[in-house]
Amino acid sequence: MTTARKHRKLAVALTAAAVLAGGVGVANADVIQGTAVTANQQSGWNGIVRKQVQIDFGKGWVTKAELTVPAGAKGRLPLVIMLHGSGRNDMNQTLPDNGGSTFVPLAQGASREGYATLRFNKRGVTDVGPVESTDPAQLNPENPYDQIQQDAASVIRFAAAQPNVDASKIYLLGHSEGTNVAANLASDPAKYNIPKPAGVIAMGVVGKDIRTLLTLQLYGRLLLQMHDEFDVDADGQLTAVESTDGLVGLPAEAAEQFRSVLLDPATDADHDGKIAIDAEAGPVLRAATGIDNYPDVPGLEDLKAYVTDIAKFPTVTEALPTFTGPTLLLNGENDLQTPARAALAADAAVAAAGNRDHTIIIYPGMAHTMNITPKFAPEFREPDQRVVTDIRTWLRSHR
Length: 399
Prior knowledge:
- The chain is of the alpha/beta class.
- It has helices at residues 3-6, 8-17, 39-44, 103-112, 136-139, 144-160, 177-187, 210-230, 240-247, 252-262, 277-289, 304-310, 316-319, 340-352, 385-397, and strands at 48-58, 61-70, 77-83, 116-120, 125-127, 131-132, 165-175, 199-203, 237-238, 275-276, 327-332, 358-363.
- Strands 1-2-4-3-7-8-11-12 form an 8-stranded mixed sheet, with helices on both faces.
- The relative contact order is 0.15.
């Protein structure tokens, strides 16, 4: 049996489990009257007026959205627009496995600071759940990432036209893919026919190009896990004992993925009884993921158009420095989808461009959805209260 065939199952499992550019994918949530809610989320809306609106994205799609304002507020308010991670996300960015949502607690928190907020379903999403359209033209538009940006621009123009919104005080809050969208729009508002945003908040910062991020998500994280959790003596090599001990406690699927490589005698290319993580396990894992066939990565065929399109646009690190307004970058230290190091580089680029109003916070123990979770087996949950508090504090200081 050839190496390629032997590890085909591994390759399929790895690529199928990957989340492109850190999006949250399809959720499986309880839906109550069109809105996925928890008891805490329900009570969190006290004192907030919620208005259901519709926004015309063009090309045959009108999306549902929700505009919120603090009860009793008068005059034109500053507003926060929520921009989703990759995937077909609803207005709440409902999380998988009953994990709640990303945007509900943030919208509620912003409202407590006197802001209006606007959340919207992505093109192809008909309702919270998320519930998807059956129209393939809306689910898979041409130039998908550019269309996402154009749709976000439509949302900004809609918001600016509302009588209770201050068009000069529209803030963009993006998660994952949404950080890239926010940076691209903020860097060149005239191109998108939108008012200059008042500020950008980015969570899970897309600071590197898509190929680099996919390489980390599909391949690099596996080497990191072997170094961090298997290599007890930190010599870069795994003995038979380290390999078998490292499998203890892993979820069954993950254990099988590593077992098929580490316990295969063929992986020990120099036959010294040890597996060199980078030099021996690395090539086997890299070949199994197929990342070197980019953009034709096995298991990600349906995402090729998206991968190809987003690669045409600047990353946050490249785009955000041309924006002169205030920025707040937030990243989990344990984020293996959009790494903290890239967020630090993006903030450094903003500083180097002369922007004095820039802030970055790296949260220990947090992963991509900004919650405390194991590094190599992350669970999608709502943002930690510290994140909500830090965003509220920043918004309060920029109101």
